[in-house]
Amino acid sequence: MVCVDNHGMGKPSDLVQGTLDLLILKTLSLEAKHGWAIAKRIQQVSGEVLQVQQGSLYPALHRLEQQGWIKAKWAESETGRQAKFYSLTAAGRKQLESETANWNRLSEAINIVVQEA
Amino acid sequence: MRWLSKLSMQIKMLFGRTQEDTRLADELEFHIEQQIAENVAAGMSAEEARHAALRIFGNPTLLREQARETWSWNWLDRLAHDLRQGIRTLTRTPGFAALAVLVMALGIGANVALLTVIRSVLMKPLPFKDADRLVRLFEADSKGRFQDNIVAGGTFGRWKQDSHSFEDMAVVKRTVYNLSGTSGQLPELMDAYFTSSSFFAMLGVQPVIGRSFTRAEDRPEGSATVVLAWGLWKRRFGGSPGILGKTILLDSKPYTVIGVLPAWFSYPDPKVQLWTALYHEKSPEMMQMFAAHNFDVVARLKPGISIAQATADLNSVQRQIRVQNPEGAVNDAVNIRPMLDAEVRDVKTGLYVVFAATGCLLLIACLNITNLLVARAAARRRETAIRAALGGSMARLVREQVIESLLLSIAGGGVGLLFAEFILQWLVSARDDIPRADAIHMDWMVLLAALGVVLVCGLFSGIVPAISSGHRKILTSLNESSRSHSGGQKSARLRQVLLALEVGLTVVLLVGAGLLIKSYRQLRSVNLGCATRNVLSVDINLPKINYNTAEKRVLFYEQLVERVRQLPGVRGVGVSTVLPGQGMRRNDTFNIPERPPLPQGQVLVASTSFVDPEYFHAMQIPLLQGRFLQPDERMERAQSVVVNQAFVRQYFPAENPIGKHIVASVIGNDESYEIVGVAGDSLEDLDHAAVAMIYYPLYAGSERSTVLAVRTASNPDAVAIPIQKIVADLDRDLPVANILTMDQILGQSTQNQSFDATLLLAFAVLSLVLAGVGLFGVLSYIVAQRTTEIGIRIALGAPREQVMKLMLVRGLKPALFGLIFGVAASFGLARYIESLLYGVHPFDPLVLLVVCCLLLVVASIACAVPAWRASQLDPIEALRAE
User: Fold this and answer.
1) How many whole angstroms separate alpha carbon B793 and alpha carbon B820?
2) The overall pTM is greater than 0.80
């Protein structure tokens, strides 16, 4: 799961299932990354708000790989050690588009409801 | 292209699983290293950094498991895991596993073998073109007294001419030829068939070389031709194609070889070596007669014509024949059977009964294994309860149990298939009387059925105990099994029900076996009415050419009898055309001139036998009245006959038959014979009452196919070689065949019964053992469960005999229920084997009594051991065990 770090105000709240997939696909759309870098990147970009749990990250990566949306390659990391780099496939790129569109619709809808109330 | 990458992914996940596993570990390790590096950068010590990283990371094993969960082929992984687990569980108790596999193998093996036989013999179509339209035609009686009479020559001619339902019709008859020896080979008696010319074409059989008979050859004036079976061609003629057009000597007459049949053709059985043209061999007179029943008729129905339609059609033809021939043994109806049905009729019921018995055996084997597994499941209740409490899913637990029993039944099935192959080989060699025995092979259908049986057995014996162990009441189980009194009540009851079923099936098998054995013994103890001990029989077939006059034939028999009589140890020598127990070979109609002529349509019939004067003495058939035939009544002076007691009962119930005459056409036309004596009855078949018989004088010289009967003081086999020498001395070209003792002849005629009875007995004994083991197991289990309770009882002063009685009753209860159920079921089923029984009622009280006693004795022994053990418990030990 992805948790929202709400600055010590109680338990972090869980994000909708599928959101993590979107975040991973988006993160990988720029360049190939290994698991650690993906988690770090999401954390940094979200301004430390989103914390990716390892317990969700790796199963998600493997699931996406099994689905054929991302592919993996072993290469040397910045520290000189062999690491598993993930990158988007063509199918993954399409998937990212449709998931982004979905997400936009969903968040807009939620926004409207929240604003109204 | 996504499917392509998915596919390559799947292949990678299937074959590179171990590699992927290490990579996953490596990937996670890298993550932790990065975290540690970050922590160190943030100023922690190396040790601290590592701990913090691991804390954030969580349980790496769990994480790995979760990642693996997303992989494809995961089910395969789980299956492999369960299989490993199952094998491990089974190998922990190798004795149990081996026993269970063996029991399963016996059950499955016997069933596969019988299924193979039934499929090959009873169900597989005959290997002919459109075999479903091939039928056998029989003469029948409109009053239903007989259904499958063989057909008269004239009748066949009229059927062929006047019926409209058949594409073609052929007539065949079994016979024997003496194939003369050429270039140093011995003469040999050959099983052979006469056939009308269209027979092979009708079956759709083409000779591999040459051709079959033409119409021109299938006439009395045609040239003599012969078609060879493949086996004979290979064996005697070296498989040379040059045989075509060559001449061979059959019964010393020249026949031109015109064709060789294919190797697969073995109709009606593989013993038939050669075929000749029927209308060429048989006299035109015989082929005109309506009352002389001689032939087998095979026909092919026109497409779209049902057997019922064809029967109606042919019935009208036959009625016409009867109207035109109101006298004599002319039938007035027909019966049509599918060809396959007609071939296998004799063995059908027996095979189905044995198959039903193997089915019972398999069910018993299954129940037994279920029982053992229920016991194990019960013993593992605590384990399963703990697993369930820790979150083990019900499905997972059931799956493990089922996989365990599937493993057992698959192993059992594998061994069983080997076992079935052995049974089949033995069966084919032991039962050469089974028609189409050469067609018995396992095929994919049988293998598929075997697989199905294996799966069903595995599922059945796995699911029952899995469900019985009742994981749903976790707390109860845990409570119950923490105090070992009265534990597992529910599964104990289930086991008792299973056991009662098992005992019931065993009783059914025992009753069936008992009935068949009693029937067989009855059959073998029938008094044949003649000597059966130390009697040797030798078939003699005099060729027509060399023995063309009555004088030559009589002379040969006289010399033969005279010389055999002088062999040491010989007590009596006789010659006859048929021996008692060989079945009915021939019957003829006759008249009694002293009586007013019979009304139209009625005839007198008696079995026909030709005997020499010494025959009665040799076979020890008693003289009841008058005298036997005399040695000087030979040739034209042979005008006396002897009749048997049944003949007198039937035709001279209130008169003295001596001095009366009979007129019959057994040799020439309407000769008159005087009845000079009455002999005791001897049976043609063991399972039929004596029928009226007339013994005509062999020394009239008409017969060429006879049986020499020699009674000796001790083992008759000792004279077999000297007899063959004497025959060779008298005629170097004369083969002798079928040198059999009377016991062997009777053994052959009761082979069916003895076989069925023996097999059923074997199955019954096996299931009795299984049931005994089951009873022993259940009671031992109950005793083990109630150890504490029994200990307390004994400690409080319960007499040990009472404890033993208590346990004994407990164990015998399922046996008693099973016995009642089994006896009731036998009552329902016994009538199905009624047709196999001789002189035994299906509800034979003696058999039932013996079965009940036997079962109770076995059950008591099986229960006594654990009950006695219970009564000998040391209360201190029992209570301390808690």
Assistant:
1) 32
2) no
